[in-house]
Amino acid sequence: MSTGSLAAPSKQTLEELNPFHAMAQRFEIAADHLGLEPGLREVLRTPDREMTVAIPIVMDNKELRVFIGYRVQHNFSRGPCKGGIRYAPDVNLDEVRALAAWMTWKCSVVDIPFGGGKGGVICDPRELSQGELERLTRRYTTGIMDILGPDRDVPAPDVNTNEQTMAWIMDTYSMHVRRTTTAIVTGKPLSIGGSRGRTEATGRGVGIVCREALKKIGLRPENARVVVQGSGNVGGIAAMLMHREGYRIVSMSDMYGAIHRPEGLDVPAVLAHLRQHKRLDGFAGVERLSNSEQLEIDCEILIPAATENQITSKNAERIRAKLIVEGANGPTTVAADAILEQRGAVVVPDILANAGGVTVSYFEWVQDRAGFFWTEEVVNARLEQVMVSSFEEVDQMARRFGVSLRIGAYILAVGRVAKVYQLRGVYA
Ligand code: NAD
After folding, report:
1. What is the residue with the minimal CA distance to atom 15 of ligand 1?
2. Separation of 253 CA from ligand 1 center, angstroms?
3. What digits encode the pLDDT tens for the residues 370-414?
């Protein structure tokens, strides 16, 4: 019997693509530099709490279906857990664990008083009606409610969830605790306690660290050609803001493919096309490329802002960008890191580069609890200050230990969380 022409992925490939293993390997390198003892490493590696819930939903056709949801709280030693909720057919516990751990390190890198959490529901939101999505969200919220709370765990949007999802979670939680509790989630609509500047925060933060990194490598924005993978909240907004600052955005992409124009794209026109047609296809006057071809374009800056495992041992050799700024979580594998480093490419790691979102989520939580809301100028100025000083601290750590910015960021983050255990001790 023929085994077919599709080869099963090798063990090495599966290992390379497992985000939890990727996180753990970088954690170990940082822990070695910090000289952490084995017991503390085990504490910091192990998620504090994991919850799996069954979510029964009556579908529009009256059929009863059960979905599976997760919430992982990786570490709450520095404060309540913070992290998004994603809806996708391929969500799995290892991925949610990795994302939760990344949130712990990310909150620590930018020094905001949160630990890391993440949630996910296995579903394909494109196949669900608005009513089904609402019932799924409310039942999932009820399922994990015992571990949520403004002082316990504060969710936010992630892939395939949005402001509306957060509004449903806020309402469901509020109905159960018998009072309106806006600080239970961030990324809410402005009219129910959202923060000005939150929608743009991650893309804005990507732009800020990109500018700081360019200064270090001696390049000016107007001389930098930029390739952006993903045109959603992170990629689309980063491209828009960087276009305004004079960068030449030569390529953008979505899940269906990429567009390329070496003279530079008219980014506002691209985004208007995307809003109208829901895909980049059909945008005039550009060359079409596949998603994998796009990553290999000749450029100075590459911003992967779509999804995990985009730069791997298979394509890292062919990536020509001098500077890679990770808008997405986990776009580069550990094996690819080594190849890029050998080539002299500078990578601004995800736990720093996309931390603008969680920083303004923190601002939203502070504003909700104070009941006093800031202007957009104040939000943006405070974000700028956090991103610039965090970049500087990561850069200094990398120089001090003679490591990449990624490992420098992990050393900074892991060191801060380890210090909390030394100060608080281990209870009982
Ligand atoms: P989004 O859903 O708004 O946009 C994702 C974009 O990527 C879309 O344009 C989609 O078409 C495209 N895409 C998906 N798969 C692709 C592929 N294989 N090749 C090219 N394009 C592809 O999501 P988002 O909020 O922009 O998040 C993107 C990444 O950034 C995720 O890794 C997310 O975890 C991370 N992130 C988001 C935030 C935030 O505030 N939104 C904060 C931190 C990190």
Report:
1. 255
2. 11
3. 999 999 999 999 999 999 999 999 999 999 999 999 999 999 999
Question: For the chain, what percent of residues have pLDDT higher than 90?
Answer: 94
Task: State the distance from the centre of ligand 1 to the C-alpha of 396, rounded, in angstroms.
Answer: 29
**Which atom of ligand 1 is least distant from the CA of 86?**
34
- The two most distant CA atoms of the chain are separated, in Å, by 69
Question: Which tokens hold the place of 78?
Answer: 């520095």
User: Could you report the per-residue pLDDT of 161-218, keeping only the tens digit for each?
Assistant: 999 999 999 999 999 999 999 999 999 999 999 999 999 999 999 999 999 999 999 9
Taking the C-alpha atoms of residue 120 and residue 137, their distance in angstroms, rounded to an integer, is 11
- Which residue has 């924005």 as its token pair? 221
Q: Of 103, 254, 296, which is best to mutate to test ligand 1, by the most ligand atoms within 8 angstroms of its C-beta?
A: 254
203 lines ligand 1 (CB under 6 A): no
pTM for the structure as a whole: 0.95
Question: Which of 301, 295, 121 is CA-nearest to residue 206?
Answer: 301
Residue 221 CA neighbour count, 13 Å, CB half:
15
Question: Best mutation site among 85, 161, 307 for ligand 1, i.e. most ligand atoms within 8 A of its Cβ?
Answer: 307
Whether ligand 1 lies within 6 angstroms of the CB of 234 is answered as yes
Classify residue 111 as left (phi > 0), alpha (psi -120 to 50) or beta. Answer: left
Distance CA 114, CA 112 (A): 6
